[in-house]
């Protein structure tokens, strides 16, 4: 079977869920080989990657790889991609930048924001702000495919997890931008927005920063992440890092609840690949209802607390 490289996303040695999803996807198409970029590889990480099917784990432990911004990871993958059939990365901001750089280096093509992948590396992709769904295929070189988190449910199936050390010699160009400081973000109790299986988002209809507690209440009852429309973040009601959409984060959860959000194309661009969409809006003509699987026409200040109460009762 052919080898499919999966770039590992990790935080302080803990393998992120999206990597397990990519390994699961890779297993359906060939032999998954995980690529660990940077120091901090642990026996726990090795066990986790093997548990989800990594037959091989390439470990490039040089701190150079994480001391410079993005380019070293693309150079590492370019070195390994010569013998691979495809490269999968997470469609995060960094993953997509790596994918683009890698495709240039390997004279190949790149597909970003894939939400599915089938035989022959045909990717399901959502384009033009989510207006059109296409099947896309790279026709030249080793396909580089950035897959959205939550597109596939991770399923464990043991692989050999054979470790292989890799040394990489970085070009001067890859060392152009050095990381000078890393500031640790406070890790809240809620799941990370782009990785969450459930997202509850609020828009201008929420009405104020204080009212966002209604959105947070439902999110906490469901174990969900909180998102916001740009109208809400621009108004200063919720921090910008939680903005969903074209100029915010792209999410692809199992369930997306949009409360007081009209459904502008720029918002849809960041959430329309969610498996199930629920919209709560007092305007029956709001465009979000065209996209929603379930819609509630009503005042979110009445509907959301009732929903929260109902969820809590059923726990
Ligand atoms: P509105 O469009 O004002 O909608 C508010 C909705 O709330 C209405 O449908 C209303 O009926 C409903 N409502 C009001 N009160 C209640 C209530 N009590 N109960 C229930 N419903 C209620 N937007 C993003 O979200 N993300 C982006 O990344 C993004 N990027 C952009 C990039 C560019 C280049 C541009 C030009 C725009 C971008 N926008 C983005 C902005 C986007 O066009 C919309 O303006 C924005 O999404 C609107 O946010 P909203 O739906 O919260 O507000």
From TrEMBL:
Pfam families documented for this protein: ETF, ETF_alpha
Domain of life: Bacteria
Keywords: Electron transport, FAD, Flavoprotein, Transport
Limits of the Electron transfer flavoprotein alpha/beta-subunit N-terminal domain: 4-183
Stretches assigned to coiled coil: none
InterPro entries the record matches: DHS-like_NAD/FAD-binding_dom, ETF_a/b_N, ETF_a/FixB, ETF_asu_C, ETF_asu_C_CS, Rossmann-like_a/b/a_fold
Keyword Cell membrane: no
Cofactor needs: FAD
Record keyword Flavoprotein present: yes
Function: The electron transfer flavoprotein serves as a specific electron acceptor for other dehydrogenases. It transfers the electrons to the main respiratory chain via ETF-ubiquinone oxidoreductase (ETF dehydrogenase).
Family: Belongs to the ETF alpha-subunit/FixB family.
Record note on quaternary structure: Heterodimer of an alpha and a beta subunit.
Listed name of the protein: Electron transfer flavoprotein subunit alpha/FixB family protein
Native source species: Nonomuraea insulae
Lineage: Bacteria, Bacillati, Actinomycetota, Actinomycetes, Streptosporangiales
């Amino acid at each position: 079977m052919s080898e499919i490289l999966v770039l590992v996303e990790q935080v302080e040695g803990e393998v992120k869920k999206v990597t397990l999803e990519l390994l699961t996807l890779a297993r359906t198409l060939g032999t998954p080989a995980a690529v660990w970029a940077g120091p901090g590889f642990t026996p726990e990480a090795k066990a986790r990657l093997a548990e989800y099917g990594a037959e091989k784990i390439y470990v490039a432990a040089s701190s150079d790889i994480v001391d410079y911004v993005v380019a070293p990871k693309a150079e590492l993958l370019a070195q390994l991609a010569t013998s691979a059939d495809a490269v999968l990365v997470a469609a995060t901001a960094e993953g997509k930048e790596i994918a683009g750089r890698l495709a240039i280096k390997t004279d190949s093509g790149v597909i970003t924001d894939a939400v599915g992948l089938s035989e022959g590396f045909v990717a399901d992709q959502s384009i033009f702000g989510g207006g059109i769904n296409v099947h896309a295929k790279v026709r030249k070189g080793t396909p580089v495919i950035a897959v959205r988190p939550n597109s596939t449910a991770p399923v464990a199936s043991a692989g050999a997890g054979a470790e292989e050390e890799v040394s990489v010699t970085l070009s001067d160009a890859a060392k152009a931008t050095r990381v000078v400081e890393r500031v640790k973000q406070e890790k809240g109790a809620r799941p990370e927005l782009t990785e969450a299986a459930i997202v509850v988002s609020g828009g201008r209809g929420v009405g104020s920063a204080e009212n966002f507690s209604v959105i947070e209440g439902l999110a906490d009852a469901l174990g969900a992440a909180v998102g916001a429309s740009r109208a809400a973040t621009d108004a200063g009601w919720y921090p910008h890092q939680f903005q969903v959409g074209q100029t915010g984060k792209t999410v692809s959860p199992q369930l997306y609840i949009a409360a007081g959000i009209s459904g502008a194309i720029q918002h849809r661009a960041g959430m329309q690949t969610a498996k199930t969409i629920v919209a709560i809006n007092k305007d029956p003509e709001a465009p979000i209802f065209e996209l929603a699987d379930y819609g509630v026409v009503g005042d979110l200040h009445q509907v959301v607390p009732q929903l929260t109460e109902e969820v809590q009762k059923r726990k």
